[in-house]
Amino acid sequence: MGQADLESTLAHAYIERDGKKWAWGIPVILPVTDAEAATCQPGETAALVFEGHVFGKVEITEVYDWDKKAFIKGAYGTDRTAHPGAALWTEDPRTKLVAGTISLVPFEDERPFKKRVMGPKQTRALIAERGWEQTIAFQTRNPLHRAHQELTFRAARECEANLFIHPVVGMTKPGDIDHFTRVRCYEHVLEQYPEQTTTLSLLNLAMRMAGPREALWHAIIRKNYGCTHFIVGRDHAGRETRHGD
Question: Which of 23, 181, 183, 223 is most buried (most C-beta within 10 Å)?
């Protein structure tokens, strides 16, 4: 995001395109250090590297200062440095943000459970193949329990929809169960759902613990995956550091 989009998202939870306002809850940022920023000039292209693998590139349009206090207050609605999202950035040495157009490059997906990961195009194709007219998505960062199973059953029945269980397996918050254990739990519970009405896919996304803003963001993501409905849970992506979901 460029500075104008960042400030609009933080202040109003929307971005503007072609004179229209589009809801957007969580800023998408690319932080860099001062030294890295000195090598990033508008008009140039930089590689995006994660754990030694180049997975994309960014055509740089803007490099600007990062007001972390304003970012934390706007994104998380708190001044508390104990908030897991706030703590993540206050301890980060990067002070600049790079904006630009990102594109992927071919790379070998070496993530665990990669066979359980579907992108938006794959998910939309699966929905079309199965003839699902209504698809309801369920977001979770914790293992599914009996209440989750009941509420997803009821939601699907009330909406006359099929179910897309879409848990996040990126970074969550201290104290959460690791995603290796969680995925095995999801796969086990999946056996309790009718096979042709439910599918499971993993979303490699870091939780922000940003409350209502993140609920909006999660809904937009699932809309892009082809879902027509989205379940917003109690204290969805809650800001507090207590356990629970």
Answer: 183
CB 195, CB 153: distance < 8 Å: no
> How far is 95 from 63, CA to CA, in rounded Å?
11
Active site amino acids: 140-142
> How far apart are the C-alpha atoms of 6 and 99, rounded to whole Å?
10
Largest CA distance in the chain: 55
Distance CA 238, CA 245 (A): 8
Question: Can you tell me the distance from the alpha carbon of 152 to that of 52, in angstroms, rounded to the nearest whole number?
Answer: 39
Task: List pLDDT tens digits, range 126-142.
Answer: 999 999 999 999 988 77
Rounded to 5 degrees, φ, ψ at 81 are -75, -10
pLDDT digit string (tens) for 1-30?
A: 999 999 999 999 999 999 999 999 999 999
